[in-house]
Write a structure and sequence with these properties.
- The chain contains three helices and eight strands.
- The chain has 138 residues and is of the alpha+beta class.
- The protein has a single domain, classed as Jelly Rolls, CATH 2.60.120.
- It has a five-stranded antiparallel sheet, covered by helices on one side. A three-stranded antiparallel sheet has the order 2-7-4.
């Protein structure tokens, strides 16, 4: 069995942003040469997420509104965590959206269902962030 590891880096200019990283992960898969196995993609920040869903702007807006309802950013004072920080909501949003995605690799391709794409969800941005891609297989 072989393994491949790469970190993807992003400059996130907004506090919250959804970035379609599917092309980046597909490039990693090509670089790996692995044809059959698993691709793990995980956020390397406790206030960010990696998840699989549809690349549809209306849905992305729905995510934003839903997450803001469940864990509103403001007022910052509503969170015990926010002593010298203002990102408790980002930690909660990450918990809701998940840490990582695992996608099967079949025939040298990500084995997706219809419309599936991999996203990096940033909930406390405005700085450089990273994602780990680990691919194992033959």
């Amino acid at each position: 069995m072989r393994s491949y590891r790469k970190e993807l880096w992003f400059e996130v200019s907004q506090r919250r942003e959804l970035i379609n990283i599917t092309p980046d992960v597909e490039k990693c898969l090509r670089e790996s040469g692995i044809r059959e196995g698993l691709a793990l993609v995980n956020a390397m920040h406790i206030s960010a997420s990696v998840f699989v869903n549809d690349d549809e702007p209306g849905l992305h807006g729905d995510f934003e509104r839903w997450l803001e309802t469940l864990a509103p950013e403001k007022p910052h004072s509503q969170y015990a965590h926010n002593k010298g920080e203002d990102n408790a909501d980002a930690h909660l949003k990450r918990t809701i959206m998940g840490r990582e995605a695992v996608v099967a690799v079949t025939g040298g391709r990500l084995d997706f269902g219809p419309w599936e794409q991999i996203f990096y969800g940033e909930f406390d941005g405005r700085r450089r962030k990273r994602v780990l891609v680990k691919i194992i297989g033959e």
